[in-house]
Amino acid sequence: MSGIAPTAAPVLPIRGRFRPLGLPEVRVTGGFWAERQSINAAATLPHIEHWLERAGWLRNFDLAVHGDLARDRRGREFSDSEVYKFLEAAAWEIGRSGNADLESRFRAVVRRVAAAQQPDGYLNTRFGGPGQAPRWSDLEWGHELYCVGHLLQAAVARSRTRPGADDGLLDIARRAADNVCETFGPDGLDGLCGHPEIEPALVEFARVTGDDRYLAQAALFVDRRGHGRLSDVEFGREYFQDELPVRQATVLRGHAVRANYLAAGAVDVAVELKETSLLDAIRIQWRNAVARRTYLTGGQGSRHQDEAFGGDWVLPPDRAYSETCSGVGSVMLAWRLLLADGDPEYADLIERTLFNVVATSPSADGRSFFYTNTLHRRELGTQPDADRPSLRAAASLRAPWFEVSCCPTNVARTMASLTAYVATADDDGLQLHQYLSGTVAHRLADGRELCVTITTDYPHDGRIRVRIDSDDDRPWSLSVRVPGWATRGATVTLCGDTRPVGPGVVTERRTWRRGDEMVLTLPMTPRFTYPDARIDSIRGCVAVERGPLVFALESVDVPGVETVDELRVDTRRPPRLVDGRVTVTCRRVRAREHGWPYRADEAGAAPVPGDELDEVSLVEYHAWANRGPSTMRVWLAEAAE
Amino acid sequence: MSGIAPTAAPVLPIRGRFRPLGLPEVRVTGGFWAERQSINAAATLPHIEHWLERAGWLRNFDLAVHGDLARDRRGREFSDSEVYKFLEAAAWEIGRSGNADLESRFRAVVRRVAAAQQPDGYLNTRFGGPGQAPRWSDLEWGHELYCVGHLLQAAVARSRTRPGADDGLLDIARRAADNVCETFGPDGLDGLCGHPEIEPALVEFARVTGDDRYLAQAALFVDRRGHGRLSDVEFGREYFQDELPVRQATVLRGHAVRANYLAAGAVDVAVELKETSLLDAIRIQWRNAVARRTYLTGGQGSRHQDEAFGGDWVLPPDRAYSETCSGVGSVMLAWRLLLADGDPEYADLIERTLFNVVATSPSADGRSFFYTNTLHRRELGTQPDADRPSLRAAASLRAPWFEVSCCPTNVARTMASLTAYVATADDDGLQLHQYLSGTVAHRLADGRELCVTITTDYPHDGRIRVRIDSDDDRPWSLSVRVPGWATRGATVTLCGDTRPVGPGVVTERRTWRRGDEMVLTLPMTPRFTYPDARIDSIRGCVAVERGPLVFALESVDVPGVETVDELRVDTRRPPRLVDGRVTVTCRRVRAREHGWPYRADEAGAAPVPGDELDEVSLVEYHAWANRGPSTMRVWLAEAAE
């Protein structure tokens, strides 16, 4: 066991309730996530590389050296960041699998990036070159600091998975970060970036390099936000969280990706600098956002207009923006809070978001993506051209690439680093937060080496078997999370003894012996879920869930039905598991056609009841839209009683 | 009676079921609309002129002559059009009231506009000047043809209200229109405008000038649309109705103002050129838009993102865009269809839209405006600064001016020309479509002069008294509309005989004598209205209407209640009229606070019932938000039984 290496993970805080485990301590050996990690490596990463080249976003770096960027540059302001996110994803994947081919492609991309860096460390293909807008001339929309942030995160991933690698990425990042500190330091430009990202990146870069100057710069950026330094825009300063200081806000608001990235950075700063009040503020923002502004899937953002959080309880399923990237950002934030506080609610949201947002974005083949993740589709779509990028980030169809293509690379880096979100340790033992088949090995601070093997078919089966694979004479704690949805029927079995457990953390402290087992059994009966009455848009509707998975009614599963809006669900009959499929009983209704859709008589406005259908199969939400054009609902209208 | 002048009205088709009456045939003497016309003249028009000057949009015309437009021009691409819409509004107002001061201000603005016209007739302050983008270089977003369209409509208004006026506006318009025809004619640029408006304007200009070249050009623009000549944009070509030829579309779609303006122009072309299939297509589009894509208020457009129609049944009250301008456009379209076909449903929608959208936009003092007209406001807003333009067209608060300030000028021109939508004639008599106190006088084609006086407190009283003020030995027809909402209880009284009538048109043909009366009595009991079950966003809700007015629950009317979302309406007790106020019985509920707003137990998700309140007063929807910050709902959640 002495081969256990230092943790390689995206987030390594100096302190907190739990220490994260990452590569190589956590290994995934099979199941839901293992499959997705394979597809990510085999299909998604090459797909992204292909599109970065094809769209010209990689070539922009070459043009910075040899060409005329002002004339020939391709892509939006932030296209550099997609290259960096690809590098980050590749770094995690190389760390995970040691893929030699990917290693050489990674190095080739780093060389192209390196060539474009200016002597003073500035690195951006959109600003500052001959004929281009000056550096830092558009902090609202220019995304320069945002791009540096993703460069730093790529370097963090690389230097943790291949410490001392001679590819030069860490040095490129260090020079870019130094340039940021010199430019935006206490005596420099009193500005900040319209899209947060540099904040968590600088903190992590400080953790990697041990240089607190980066941390101080991150703290400065967090402090500067919320005072109207960015100019007012059509969507208001709330769009980039500049209308209210971070410490004063009580809920996540504005652009949902920006909000989550900023909050993640604020947690990082708060943890490093022991800023209790800052951490308290983010906790409150997170709790309120989860209680009032989060979709059943964990998705966040209900406005297409500005990709933003709506007001409290504004969660329309049909206009759910629920951007894939805000799902990624939400996982980033909840993970940081979990490490800081240890509360299982954070892991609950991570689980929900990973299964129902992050896993929903890529198609089964890993080569097309949802940018937004709607919960209701009324019209049969047409399959987007698999060979053309989509102009429309807001289209509710998986497309191979987008003009704004943040989501595919965000999915890729999350999938490649997924093992980092599974388990943690403290001085007394291990905590398991997410369930998949694999192993967790960790050396405690006192030198004891702990190792467990997890075997499960979760999320399709509720039994999670944790076998101890290490021997130790002293007691240590093993904790498992009972998800918030497991309100009834969960049990833990230890050495033949089974006892009921409720949502929260179950900790067993004992002198574990090799071969000991702790079995967590979660209740996997499909269930109806009812919304808070304040969510106007889904009044009178129910959803169906099983375990952590949200289900959807998709028209391809209902013969003869093109639009699932014609169906009403009979809530007197609970959903059932039939031959591995979750089913509900539905009635078909036929709407009356009116010239004017508002009627004085209630009965006249109601649809005409039609046939009761046999049990209708639902689809796991993440898997919908993989079988051709379809209509879909997560929230099903209840049949009148 | 021989003083009856030729009709002055915005739309004078060559043929159709009815001929429109306008100034001076229809005079308004008092009541709801008379008040608003007074405020429009006394407050809104000077307010607009002030802002056009202050925002620099008028000065742009001066810069075209003496300055550097490339450097100093202010405002968006379409700001010229606001100047033209002001001229149109002023022309109608001068025609209505003969205001001499306004006449001289009108002339002063025309002189400034005239000076900016190029020798070949081209007129636009945003394109074509030194250092500016070339003419017609951005048909998607440039709005050049759109601006010409509004210039033509101003000239139409002026030449109909002051035929032969020596201000030069008609000539300016003619030269601009000629330039359009020369540039975009059959052998010219094969293009069209991203924002329809030139189409109806050219047809009307052909009607004014008698020059069919303008009509042919309008027809060409209508034919060119829908073939992808405009480039694809983020919102898709549907945004400017360029994804499908006008004759093939079956519903209004895309940007709601664009859609209505285009359809209005298509009706104009169809009527002039007897293009039956084109007219049929627009009828179908209108019917489907009204049945599936229109708010209870008559408002259209449910997407903030692209100011567009949503899909069928996508009508969220809280995100209702319902742009004031799309209400104006909807009135324009329905009026043209009414003239062509005579169906009362068109007048029903006009009535609903005038009372609940157009009248809602301006504040009580006529100096601030809703751009969008939401049906649900959850949060107390803050009163916008009465001295600052709003950046945010989508903000649900009345503001004095906007960066995109299309709505105030559109309200002004509609209010000033409102008499044009009241009555029509055919060879056999008069038809009254909208009810207000005033007179209608008209000389039939055979020379007979008809005159009636209407006396009513509509919409606050249901009795509409029509007195005949002319004598004629031959019979003629007098028609009144029984609105679609008057499903029960309407009566007509003629010479003491009262009979029940239902929705539709009631026509009485007789030899009318001076002093004869026809009294239409409409049922004014407040009523609950239920939505079609396919409108997901208002399931389980009811609205309250009285006559043509939609009502709202506004927090300022409920002592101790800040958010009206806490209230549930008891639908077992019908709304009542109490001392002139419409009231409903409500129960207050208290939501349970959950960390996660989706629950496995239905009862746990439901709110806790609280006190039953006494009868709560509702506000006429158009009058809401005139008493300080408030929350508001049109659709009220029903109390559980």
From TrEMBL, chains A, B:
Residues forming the Non-reducing end beta-L-arabinofuranosidase-like GH127 catalytic domain are: 25-418
Matches recorded under InterPro entries? 6-hairpin_glycosidase_sf, Beta-AFase-like, Beta-AFase-like_GH127_C, Beta-AFase-like_GH127_cat, Beta-AFase-like_GH127_middle
| Non-reducing end beta-L-arabinofuranosidase-like GH127 C-terminal domain sequence ranges | 526-636
Span of domain Non-reducing end beta-L-arabinofuranosidase-like GH127 middle: 430-524
- Short name of any one Pfam family annotated for the protein: Glyco_hydro127C
Q: Which PANTHER family match?
A: DUF1680 DOMAIN PROTEIN (AFU_ORTHOLOGUE AFUA_1G08910) (PTHR43465)
Any idea what this protein is called?
Non-reducing end beta-L-arabinofuranosidase
**What is the originating organism of this protein?**
Micromonospora noduli
Q: What taxonomic classification does the UniProt entry list for its organism? A: Bacteria, Bacillati, Actinomycetota, Actinomycetes, Micromonosporales
